[in-house]
Amino acid sequence: MKVSVIIPFHNAFSFLEKSVSSALNQDETGELILIDDHSTDNSLDLVEKLQQKDDRIIILQNNSNISGAAISRNVGVHHASHDYLAFLDADDYYLPERFTSDVSLFLNNSDIDAVVNSVQIKLQKGEKQFILNSFYRHNELLGFSRSFSAININDYLVGFNMHLNGLTIRKSIFQKTGGFDVHLKQGEDHDFYLRLFSEAKVISADIKIAKAIYFIHTENSIQKISEAVYYRRMVSKKHFFQKIPIKSAWSFKVKKWKSFLEYDFLWLFKKDLPFKKWIKILLLPIFIYRLFSKNDPSFDINRTIPPTSHK
Description:
Blueprint (H helix, E strand, L loop, with lengths): L2 E7 L3 H12 L4 E8 L6 H9 L5 E5 L7 H11 L4 E4 L5 E2 L5 H9 L5 E3 L1 E6 L4 E4 L2 E4 L3 E2 L7 E2 L1 H7 L7 E4 H7 L10 H12 L2 E3 L5 E7 L8 H16 L8 H16 L11 H16 L20
Helix pairs in contact: 1-2, 6-7, 7-8, 8-9
C-alpha cells in the first residue's frame, strides 16, 4: 500500500525540513507532494534542494488568486497518483510507523474509507495554552475514545478530537466528499470532517499511540480572533440546515448552535460564567438573525474539487 502525502506550505522555512523528512521516512510514502502557497521566504528554494535528494518529492505551486491550505491541498490531491491520501501541515511532523495501523486496517477491511490516528500536541509556550474556546495541553493526545472501532459524526461532535495529520483516506472518497472548501481560510478541516462522516465509513486506529505531532507555536497560533470567529461561523451556518443521517438531527443542530454561539461570542465563554446558559437564550434572536443573514458568502454543499491550471 502506497500513500500520497500532501504538504501545503507558506513561509515555513524553519519547519519544512523536519516535516518533509518525517514523511519520507515512512516506507508507505509513495510520493510527497509539496504545494507552495505564495511563500515569500526561502521555503521554495529549500524544498527544491530536498527534491534533488529524493525523487519521491513533487513540487507544485498555487498560482490561483485564492490562497490558503484548502485550495493547496485540493491541488495536491488533483495530482496524486496513489489510491490513498494523507495530509501533513508544514510545521508539524509524522512519528515513526505513521501508516502501520492504516495498512493493516485497509487491507483487512475492504469496506472502510478512512482511518483516523491519534495526534500528539506539542506546545512551544508551556504546559497549556488557550486558543479560541479550547485549552490545549502539552503532550495531550487528540483522538477518539475507542480503538479500532467505527466512528461517526456523533463521536466527532462530542469533543472534536481529531486532527488532519492523523487521517488516511481513500482518494475516491475524498473526491466524493468534494474536497476542502476553498472559500474557508480557517475551519476548512472541520467543514471537511462534517461531510466526511456523512459520506464515509471511518475507523479509529489505536487511540493510545500518537502517529503525528501537532506543534502549536507563536507563528501558527491564531492571532486574529475576529477572522477565526468569522470563518467558524461560516462553517456552522453552512451545515446548520444540512440533512445529515444521524440518530438525532435535533441533537446535531443544538450542538452546532452551541458551537456557533461559542465562536461568535467568544469573550463570553472564556470563563465559566454561572449565568451563561441564560445569556445563550437571550442571544438566540441574534443567532437566528445571523443565520438567515444574506451578508455572508453562500456555500455549495455539493461543491467538487475545482479544475486547476497549477503546474
